[in-house]
Write a structure and sequence with these properties.
By secondary structure, the chain is mainly beta. Helix content is about 5%, strand content about 30%.
């Protein structure tokens, strides 16, 4: 049945007006039901707050229609005198669609900037509920360093008692050379609270490395933590001098974020200190009858593989065993400032060979310490390395 409304066109230039047909009148558009209009999706706020609502429905009868038409309550329309011809219906609908989409995009951009939050961490970078130390799938050999993603940074760590919002707070620090003492310390967060949650990295939540400042007397230890976050371990400094202690750990924050860090502090064993010169560079070392050699030439700023091979006292390939979840652990210390590099090998079969990827932070002399285990005994092979 035809619409019985009557309309009056706006007066033309000559002042004349005639009856118009119903086809010339743009009908009100219901944006909520018109299947030809693409509606912007409702945005859900990150914190549960409402997002952008859809554009409001058009005016009810009695409001202003596009093109200067006014629709009265009795079904008549009066013009503003500016035009004698109503807008084309297809053009009007296209204009409404484009205008609505542009408005939704602009509002969405503004709301996104107002409520912007950091990108959510993925499972490869966030801590799990159990506090495991995680890496992206397929991650092989890797190196923990202090570059923080900045390629211009120095990858050596352990140069400070504070890093990444965490601080090493020791208790005491003076020892008697050659006698067993006790090292006690806490790791505190930015609010000075003792940290009590640590990720398990290579079977341990805390790795403690101690070495004298002439790079002798290397020890790789694992202290235990009390309920209040205090770590402790018996420690013997065999010779007088100043020693450097490194805490290598991954802290787990209240929100589950993991932060790997290596913090360093000096320990003192009073007495006459006679520093030893650094041994000459070599690619082969012996320890307890085992011969260890490596191939590879580290470069500044580039990851280079170092392939270590271990032979037993009889010259046969040594049967390396897993020690702390890996077939070897490599620590490199830079001569001069004792910058610390802790490099982990990639997964591999139990053979006499283990490969590490090492990135030298700068030229200079380094002392490398390789921990390996055979027949349940852990030994350390030491090398001097020169990087040019």
């Amino acid at each position: 049945m035809a619409d019985q409304r009557s309309v009056t066109r706006p007066a033309g230039p000559a002042g004349g007006g005639g009856p118009a047909t119903d086809q010339d009148i743009p009908e009100p558009v219901d944006r909520g039901t018109d299947m030809g209009v693409a509606h912007p999706a409702d945005r859900q706020g990150r914190d549960g707050d409402p997002g952008i609502a859809q554009p409001a429905d058009r005016q009810e009868p009695g409001g202003v229609e596009p093109g200067g038409w006014t629709l009265s309550a009795d079904g008549t329309a009066a013009g503003d005198g500016a035009s004698t011809v109503g807008p084309d219906r297809a053009t009007l609908r296209l204009a409404l669609v484009v205008g609505g989409l542009v408005l939704a995009v602009l509002l969405g951009f503004g709301l996104g900037r107002a409520n912007g939050r950091p990108t959510e961490r993925t499972a490869a970078t966030a801590a799990t509920a159990a506090g495991d130390h995680t890496h992206a799938p397929g991650t092989g050999a890797h190196q923990h360093d202090g570059t923080g993603g900045d390629p211009s940074g120095d990858a050596a760590t352990g140069l400070s008692v504070s890093s990444g919002g965490y601080t090493l707070v020791p208790s005491g620090g003076e020892f008697t050379a050659g006698r067993v003492g006790e090292l006690r310390f806490q790791i505190r967060d930015a609010q000075r609270r003792p940290v009590t949650r640590f990720a398990i990295v290579h079977d341990k939540p805390m790795h403690l490395v101690v070495v004298r400042r002439d790079l002798t007397g290397f020890q790789h230890l694992h202290p235990t933590m009390a309920a209040d976050g205090t770590w402790s371990i018996p420690l013997t400094l065999p010779q007088p001098g100043v020693w450097r202690a490194y805490t290598d750990f991954t802290a787990v924050a209240d929100d589950g974020r993991q932060t790997p860090a290596t913090l360093g502090v000096d320990l003192v064993a009073p007495g006459e200190y006679a520093p030893r010169p650094l041994p000459a560079p070599a690619t082969r070392a012996t320890v307890d009858g085992f011969t260890v050699g490596y191939e590879g030439t580290p470069q500044v700023g580039a990851a280079v593989p170092l392939r270590f091979t271990v032979r037993d006292p009889a010259g046969r390939p040594a049967a390396l065993e897993r020690y702390l979840g890996a077939y070897g652990h490599l620590v490199a210390l830079r001569d001069g400032d004792l910058g610390y590099l802790h490099v982990h090998p990639g997964p591999g079969p139990a053979t006499d060979t283990v490969t590490f990827w090492l990135t030298a932070p700068g030229p200079g002399s380094y002392r490398m310490y390789l921990d390996f285990q055979v027949a349940g005994v852990v030994r350390t092979a030491e090398f001097t390395l020169t990087v040019r």
